[in-house]
Amino acid sequence: MKKILVVIAMLFNILIFGQEKSGAKQFWENLQKQCGKSFIGEVKEGAANETFRDKKLVMHVRNCDKKTIRIPFFVGNDKSRTWVLTYKNDRIQLKHDHRHEDGSEDKVTQYGGTTTNSGSSMLQFFPADQETRNLIPNAAANVWWITLDETSFTYNLRRIGSDRLFSVKFDITKGVPTPSAPCGWKD
């Protein structure tokens, strides 16, 4: 009975709104609901990495507009990283914006990729793009993915053909105080 009601609701939405929202659009709207909020994370895979071990990890969904969401990712006192998500033509692009304390771009920045399909409301995959391959040849086999549900946001990286795996999970049920501006931003 429940499945029948779900199908009827989907058909109703299609009749009223013209079509069901794509996975990318649903994911985007769900992520925008977190705008302005900050959360503590925990490394789930790749904990041996000295960059992240024993450091406080905070993400801040700091800036959202219709087409762009910027999420600074702080590792201890290091405020150099921002995940930049862009929504265009029912696809989502992920870029990694790395900056120095003075706001200038790091030499390794703007790498990432774009989804190859609309994905799902809770999962988006980003295979490395040509810009990434040109900038970091070894990263040509990178695949990033983000999962988002009612309780967590998880950022993941896998380098296909290697044992490289990194995953950090943020509990989005418990906000934390908003951190100060990341490198290159003004409060």
From TrEMBL:
Domain of life: Bacteria
Designated name of the protein: Secreted protein
Organism: Flavobacterium xueshanense
